[in-house]
Amino acid sequence: MQIDSVNISQGASAATIICDALRRAIIEGRLNDGDALRQDEIARMFGTSRIPVREAIAMLEQQGLVVTQRYKGAVVAGISPQEAAEIWDFRALLEGHVIEAAVPRMTAATFARARRHLDAFAKTANPRDWGELNRQFHTTLYAASDLSYHLTVIDKALDRVDRLLRAQLSLSNGLARATEEHEAILAACEAGNPEQAGQLTRQHILGAKANLLAQINRD
Amino acid sequence: MQIDSVNISQGASAATIICDALRRAIIEGRLNDGDALRQDEIARMFGTSRIPVREAIAMLEQQGLVVTQRYKGAVVAGISPQEAAEIWDFRALLEGHVIEAAVPRMTAATFARARRHLDAFAKTANPRDWGELNRQFHTTLYAASDLSYHLTVIDKALDRVDRLLRAQLSLSNGLARATEEHEAILAACEAGNPEQAGQLTRQHILGAKANLLAQINRD
DNA sequence: ATAATGAATATTGGATACAATATGCAATAC
DNA sequence: GTATTGCATATTGTATCCAATATTCATTAT
User: Fold this and answer.
1) Which chain A residue's Cα is nearest to B59?
2) Per DSSP, what are the bridge partners of residue B102?
3) Chain B residues within 8 angstroms (CB to CB) of chain A
4) Which helix (H) or strand (E) holds B35?
5) Range in A51-60, A132-141, A209-218, B94-103 the model is least confident about
6) Parallel, antiparallel, or unpaired for β B36-37 and B73-76?
7) What ipTM, to 2 d.p.?
8) Can you name the CATH fold of A81-218?
9) From CA A68, how far away is CA A77, in angstroms rounded?
10) What is the CATH number of domain B14-76?
């Protein structure tokens, strides 16, 4: 008789669940810069005491997503145009490098998966999904590099700027242009051309940065 | 009458104090890979309850310095040779870039400060100080770049590998060689040569990586 | 002897209670 | 009217306690 065993002791802790939910809410724009995170309110929402909420907030602060001040609580971290610009440059440097390392190791399964994410991104009507779908497209390609530390750092950088991605894609023609650029990046990967994939990725990121900064300066 | 006001409300929380102390202990090698972090013991040492200790541990986990398992507590994170190698490559990429951006913005005060850190590094006899002094030398140079996000990410990477730095510097001639390389980097900065500073920084980091990996493979 | 079992103890997870600080609002002063 | 003060309330920080789970060790079975 064959019994499938499952590890029943590793359900997520309350703090982890709350941290993930808050992180998602911040990234997807449901919580905005400067919004206060009230410990008692969040505890009520999750049916728990404040202790795991505090632990979740401590985690989020380490991720740069919230800022706490002693005795005054936590607020969602803002991001200045200068910081956003720097993070975009950072991403161009790092993601360009990672995709170059990844291309020689990509398989047909990589391409198929990336194609699915690209298509989903292109056809979604819900702005809230753009960040996640964009991320899935890119990180599927990068994952072939096997550079897990790099990927973790990229994920963290994306967490910080995803809310701005929505603003940038909302620009006239933003979505169509991003989709074209994704197509070109995927084509370079499929052609086995690391230099071109890297170059296109850097242009893609820096182009998005330029658009967004232009919008901020116009506002 | 002139009164100097001070902000008296911003002492660090217990969790922050504990987190910083544990982080330092890990980085400096006083806590080793796999060491358990016992909540009750740490709470006693700091004269507090376990709650701030739990918060501190949650923070450290986000920093990649400890690994927790539900109901089993936290242990100091290990680092495999592969992960160490990747982080060194990561540092070469990032720090090379940052110092190139920094060179054109460096001042005489930068050089004087870096010189002091270089000298302190060269003459210390205490291996426990190598990581911090090495870090101060490099980050003094990088700070002129004004790339604060990059610097934060570099600091985090250094936190992960500083304990290995000690091993690498303990190698025959490791300290003398690192000092020579620091001298060359500083000279390139003083000469206002970003490309050379970047190149020497990358070589410095990748050379340290190669030495360490050779030692690991010998063991 | 080794392996299995069960109870006691240790440790973690988090609920509740208390202490410390911040905020808001009504009352008072000018 | 505006500014200041003082008190009540709200919120954060953490101590204490209880519940849940893991580990250890003595006892029993083979």
Assistant:
1) A59
2) none
3) 9-13, 15, 51, 54-56, 58-59, 61-64, 69-71, 83, 86-87, 89-90, 93-94, 97, 147-150, 152-153, 157
4) none
5) A209-218
6) antiparallel
7) 0.90
8) Four Helix Bundle (Hemerythrin (Met), subunit A) (1.20.120)
9) 9
10) 1.10.10.10
